Amino acid sequence: MANIIDNINTEILRQCRQQIGLNILEVKGKIKKIEEIEEDKQKPTFNQLNTLAQLYNVPRWVFISDKLPEKYKFDKALPSFRKFMDSDDKAFKSPKVRGLITKVERFRELIIELIEDAGEKTAPFNPPKLKNNITEKAAANKIKNWLNIKEKSLSFDKRKEKLEKKGVFIFMTSKYKGWSYIDKKIFRGLAIYHSVLPIIIINDSDAKKAQSFTLFHEFRHLLGKESVIDNSWQDSEKRCDEFAGNLLMPAKQFKSAVDSATHISDMSDIKKIATKFQVSPYACLVRLLQLNMISTHHYENLEQQLKSEYEKVKKKLKEAKGGPPRKREREAFNQYGGLYTKIIFQAYHNKEIGLNKLCQLFDFKRTSYAFKLEGYL
After folding, report:
1. Within-domain flag for 300
2. Model confidence at 131: pLDDT above 70
3. How far apart are CA 93 and CA 68, in angstroms?
4. What is residue 91's predicted lDDT score, i.e. its pLDDT?
5. Which residues form the domain of 66?
6. I need a labelling partner for 121 at 20 to 30 A (CA). Which of 48, 94, 190, 231 fits?
7. Residues 6 or more apart from 313 whose CB is under 8 A from it?
């Protein structure tokens, strides 16, 4: 017989469900007797309680508390929820997205806490000030100098590292099913402004080269002290797109690459240009439109072609069986980033946390992953 837990505070159970934005019917898909449990007509099992804790993004012990701890009240833990007014309503209301934001905000708080425990202070986010009337070309050049980007082209990982060194916490969702997996149709990128350690969340279901454009699009939101969710395949804010385009594909270099191409009406040539700048074909297409190198009609036709290609690839991947073996330590480094990883391992070596806690903070089930992960630092 399953272990029954009989000291649950059903009011807190209900409160946790409501603040994550889930209704009874949605929870029933996971726990059929949730109504009876909330009404105290049936006691939950340990496994059911574990499922609810994961679903509501709180530890199990919260359900036996006299009142909901301040730390796990979303209004307390996530004040930035109020800042997403301009974001897509559907994406913001998604319990999955709200849960993801909540967890990443807590990771941010942990980084700050561990830095302070080490007797240091978290440096404020202090990018160059941009005047209201500045052009996005000038803004991009100013930020490139600040980030010390001298190379004509950088990989996504190098671009990400540049921002991390300037005090931006960058978190990647997982490609695999789990608490941080979110379909890129729901959102492609997300920015949460803080004066100390602002956050960028990028959907790792997207192609790596597409992520570079998303990274700097979201970074432009942070420069404007904005918290925003940006969706996939929708018209994004012109300002942020122009900034990302200018930073990743400077006009002079980009025009030179286009002039060398045979036919920019041909998708194969557009893909070659995109590869040269280590961006996605879609980002390259947006840049062509920004610089008036193709007509809106031409852009729409090529965009539709890209969408069709994407759907075919998605269908092919869905039908494919198996795949390359997963490397959990590499996944964790990509997901949590170098900043978070470095701080957690510093705390471990300073004996502020133990090995089991370290593994929990990376969602590892094997300690061997932790030792392999440190090799990426």
Report:
1. yes
2. yes
3. 22
4. 63
5. 10-77
6. 190
7. none
